[in-house]
Recover the amino acids of this structure.
């Protein structure tokens, strides 16, 4: 095989390995969960920043409203003091006009800041919805991953068992079992036969011993009686 063919085979093997890795659903799901958690972390950071801006802007708007009210109160006090003769009318009107200018400035700023705060609050609501969506997706993916891993383990075990069963030669196994059965039955028969022989030998020996010891009377056969008569044994 030439060097080019070997390189082609190596590249093809690596490509298949990468494809198998890419198509592995468990690894894909795990990577997807990691990506979603990273997105969730960034979204929560952005949400906190937007909510902080909205809160700060809303406080500034309220502060400008209070300043406008305070300048209005002061302008009214100046006019009252002018009316009671405690302050020159020209000076009172000049200072009151400056107070009114401050009222207009702070009131306008309060309106602008309120509108800006509303925009930030709306943006925060949108980000909150996205955060909730990502959280739900992460939870769903994590549950799916647990189920997928369990199914993968079960499928791998089942496939392994089926592969082992497929490699077993059923006809050869049955023949081997029949042969073992026949051998066992033969051994059992021989064992029983030897046992009967041993029992018979012991029975005859026991009867002879008992007869010689006088412990048992043995019934004589006709041939034995004739032999005893020839010998003169009563």
């Amino acid at each position: 095989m030439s060097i080019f063919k070997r390189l082609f085979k190596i590249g093809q093997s690596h490509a298949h390995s990468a494809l198998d890795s890419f198509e592995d659903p468990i690894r894909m799901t795990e990577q997807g969960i990691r990506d979603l958690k990273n997105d969730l972390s960034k979204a929560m950071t952005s949400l906190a920043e937007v909510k902080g801006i909205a809160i700060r802007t809303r406080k500034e708007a309220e502060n400008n409203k209070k300043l406008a009210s305070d300048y209005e109160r002061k302008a009214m006090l100046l006019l009252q003091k002018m009316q009671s003769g405690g302050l020159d009318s020209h000076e009172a009107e000049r200072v009151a006009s400056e107070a009114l200018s401050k009222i207009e400035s702070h009131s306008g700023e309060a309106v602008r800041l309120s509108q800006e705060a509303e925009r930030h609050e709306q943006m925060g609501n949108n980000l909150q919805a996205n955060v909730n969506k990502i959280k739900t997706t992460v939870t769903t993916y994590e549950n799916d991953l647990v189920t997928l891993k369990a199914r993968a383990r079960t499928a791998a075990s089942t496939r392994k068992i089926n592969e082992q069963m497929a490699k077993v030669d059923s006809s050869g196994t049955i023949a081997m079992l029949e042969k073992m059965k026949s051998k066992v039955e033969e051994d059992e028969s021989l064992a029983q036969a030897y046992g009967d022989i041993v029992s018979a030998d012991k029975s005859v020996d026991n009867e002879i011993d008992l007869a010689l010891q006088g412990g048992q009377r043995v019934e004589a056969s006709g041939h034995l009686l004739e032999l005893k008569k020839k010998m003169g044994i009563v």
Q: What stands out?
A: Residues 33 and 139 are 9 Å apart (CA to CA).
